[in-house]
């Protein structure tokens, strides 16, 4: 025999919504509008209502029902079927009427009518319904906890239906289920036993969300086929997803028989439009539950579904209050911090308490801050890359990370559980919480691994388990599960952080507006003040010269020296005013961007400087041709002139050299002064072997009128050149910074925004 691959999820692909058959305790008629002609039906019509199926095909429903009932059905077709079912119908059978419960719904273009004969004549009225349900509903609402409510429900459903065993079966986040409440007089108990997700395949869970109640009166029934096999209008199997008589998967029937269950009924428990669990009813012998009793059970299931939120919300109420208090602390810390990361760092221990974690990582841009026990920074970086594609609504949570991310096996002892929160995709802000592995013993209802049978022809078949006795398994690689309140706390934290950041952004925008206005006022003041100061200053300068010329004979040497000093001071003040005036004009002038060949521009700057300083022996190096950029030619000329002339001026080496070049993105991991990697653009530089600058003065050199040396050292100067250089770079959308080692030289880097680089 050759080896064959066993797919343990193959039952997930069984098309259980189109079985082509029904259970035998009723009949199914497929009708076509507008005449309600019967175009398809179950072949058991003779046994149920006394008509051969061949005789009913192509007949109209009016041949079976009275005109009054036909009119009622036409009215029902325009209404919500959930509000009208079941219908009280009477079928014409020979010389008598057969009273039936009718369930009607649409399946595509078809109208499906299912009929179940009533065991007793009459229909339960509202008063009877109210009397049978009011006590049950009151007890459900008064239950103090979720578990108490489940215990009330199993007792009430068993009382109403008479089943041998009634259980509440709850699904976890992985689709596996466990029995959390049970009422039975059987010797074997299934309470607290766990069942794998494969016991109820995905498509079966989907059908449970469409149908609140499902009845199987006997697991040993013979399926009743439909005639014709396919729906005539589409020549395809009829979709029986909403059918109450739909035949059940043979594997499910075998599953029930292995459990020694003959009859079963399940009532769906739905929360937030998702299947939360089931009320499962089992009986050891055949058991039919009339439609009116099923309606009561369905109503109880719907009420319980509504109460689920209230009961779960009251679980761990003190713990939830604690989480809310921690959230408040976070918001206070964030509100007082200029940056999100600073506020989070202040609350390291509280960050762990917020979700009951033992480790956390705050990730922002290229910064990774670890709190408590966490994987290494490298492992976190790789994990984060994987998480980004698995986030749903900015969240990801698992109690068994290694099952989904095999690389986590190496650090499962500290990080088997993961709760990840994305704060900002743009700014790469994330918070990861970790929980350690907790080795657990799980009580399964039988071995959860489905056995494989080898058939006579050598083929392989996966069959349901034969035993449902308690079976223990030791589970590794799992943490304690994240509580819904903890996941909710993380989700709310994101909203709160975003709210704080947005508020801070609004405040920053307002501050920027005020700062811009202040800068404009200051710029105007500097321009007016410097322009207006020049006239009286020129007068002082001139009058000092007049005094020396006209009264030279009357002045002694001390008087002449003082007037000469006054002339020098006024000259220096005029230089400062001219620099200030130039700086203010620079901010007011409009940029005239045009393509500029920087290589040619730099060569012109070098030629001009050589002509201006013929006595200076400097080697100029340009390693490769500089690119063409879109910029203001005059301002770029001034930028390079300032930087290169400074490189020449502040150099006391016997052999001076200045290098002008650029670095393209990807050639070198150049970082700016605050440690951020540069964007996709050119980084220009001017490098020298001069006197250098101490690190503590890196920011000071760009301040206006700030000089690091004496007024007359290194040929003097006003101290505004680098301030103008920074202004020019910033106006071109870039940044400028310095790297330097005293007595070895300096390198001034600057960038231009990507959109201006050609």
Explain this structure.
The chain is of the alpha+beta class and 758 residues long. The protein has 4 domains: 21-117, PAS domain (Beta-Lactamase), CATH 3.30.450; 124-314, GAF domain (Beta-Lactamase, 2-Layer Sandwich); 482-588, Signal transduction histidine kinase, dimerisation/phosphotransfer (DHp) domain (Helix Hairpins, Orthogonal Bundle); 591-756, 2-Layer Sandwich (Heat Shock Protein 90), CATH 3.30.565.10. It is built from 20 helices and 29 strands. A 7-stranded antiparallel beta sheet has the order 1-11-3-2-6-5-4. Strand 20 (452-454) and strand 21 form a beta hairpin. Helix 10 (317-335) runs parallel beside helix 16 and helix 18 (598-612) crosses helix 19. It is elongated. Residues 1-9, 668-680 and 709-714 have low confidence and may be disordered.
Write out key terms for the chains shown.
single chain, 758 residues, alpha+beta, Beta-Lactamase, Helix Hairpins, 4 domains, 7-stranded antiparallel β-sheet, 6-stranded antiparallel β-sheet, elongated
Portion in helices: 25-40%
Can you count the helices? 20
Our Rg estimate from Cα atoms comes to: 42 Å
Largest sheet: 7 strands, antiparallel
Q: Output the strand order for the largest sheet.
A: 1-11-3-2-6-5-4
The count of DSSP E runs of length 2 or more, i.e. the number of strands, is 29
The CATH topology of the largest domain is given as: Beta-Lactamase
Name the CATH architecture of the largest domain: 2-Layer Sandwich
The CATH homologous superfamily of the largest domain corresponds to: GAF domain
CATH secondary-structure class of the largest domain? Alpha Beta
Mean pLDDT figure: 81
Strand content: 15-25%
- What count of structural domains? 4
Give the low-pLDDT segments.
1-9, 668-680, 709-714
Q: Which class best fits the helix and strand makeup?
A: alpha+beta
